[in-house]
Design a protein that fits this description.
Strand content of chain A: 15-25%
Number of strands of chain B: 5
Largest interface: A-B, 32 and 30 residues
CATH class of chain B: Mainly Beta
CATH superfamily of chain A: NusG, N-terminal domain
Number of helices of chain B: 1
GO molecular function (chain B): zinc ion binding
CATH architecture of chain B: Single Sheet
Low-confidence stretches of chain B: none
Shape of chain B: globular
CATH class of chain A: Alpha Beta
Keywords (chain B): DNA-directed RNA polymerase, Metal-binding, Transcription, Transcription regulation, Zinc
Oligomer: heterodimer
Largest sheet of chain A: 4 strands, antiparallel
InterPro entries (chain B): RPABC4/Spt4, Spt4/RpoE2_Znf, Spt4_arch, Spt4_dom_sf
Strand content of chain B: 25-35%
Distance between the termini of chain B: 14 Å
Number of domains of chain A: 1
Helix content of chain A: 25-40%
Shape of chain A: globular
Radius of gyration of chain B: 11 Å
CATH architecture of chain A: 2-Layer Sandwich
Function (chain B): Stimulates transcription elongation.
Number of strands of chain A: 4
Subunit structure (chain B): Heterodimer composed of Spt4 and Spt5.
Order of helices and strands of chain B: EEEEHE
Strand order of the largest sheet of chain A: 2-3-1-4
Mean pLDDT of chain B: 94
Distance between the termini of chain A: 22 Å
Low-confidence stretches of chain A: none
Bound molecules: zinc ion
Helix content of chain B: under 10%
CATH topology of chain A: Alpha-Beta Plaits
């Protein structure tokens, strides 16, 4: 059974949010880390949000990422960050398989 | 930024046509970035209705 998602916050150098998000996604894929989603809203300067089950996964992953400065202590729930997801993208309705 | 975004599904694209929608109706100005890696377990993917791992914009102009 998969563990519940939590939201962890990475502090980044200003204006490097997207680059940190992209690098983190590359590392997560390569190392097969259980990082489920990465969010870099423009409203949130200097931070990137990461959806993962445990902070250790994120902490480890950011060690080698330039401009990822630190993992903020604690975690948030999806509900707390939900407002960043609006307006909703138009869904395609296309499913795999 | 040089990458463009499909106006229909908000996918961030490398090329000039969205491979999912088949459209070339792209936005050059966009904001916010969401990278969905695990559609099965991501709550964010569920909220956004994303069922294929990819990069998405939050807003297009
Ligand atoms: Zn599209």
């Amino acid at each position: 059974m998969s563990e519940d998602s939590q939201i962890f916050v990475i502090k980044t150098t200003a204006n490097q949010e997207r680059s940190v998000a992209m690098t983190l996604s590359r590392i997560a894929k390569k190392e097969k880390l259980d990082i489920r989603a990465i969010l870099a809203p423009d409203e949130l300067k200097g931070y990137v949000l990461v959806e993962a089950p445990k902070s250790g996964i994120v902490e480890l992953a950011i060690q080698t990422i330039p401009h990822a400065r630190a993992l903020v202590k604690g975690s948030s729930s999806i509900a707390e960050i939900e407002h960043f997801l609006k307006p909703k993208p138009i869904v395609t309705g296309i499913k795999e398989g | 930024m040089s990458e463009k975004v499909c106006r229909h599904c908000l996918r961030v694209l490398d090329g000039q046509t969205c491979p999912v929608c088949g459209t070339s109706d792209l936005a050059e100005e966009w904001s916010g970035l969401v990278i969905i890696l695990d559609t099965e377990r991501s709550e964010i993917a569920k909220k956004l209705g994303v069922d294929i791992p990819d990069r998405f914009a939050l807003k297009v102009r």
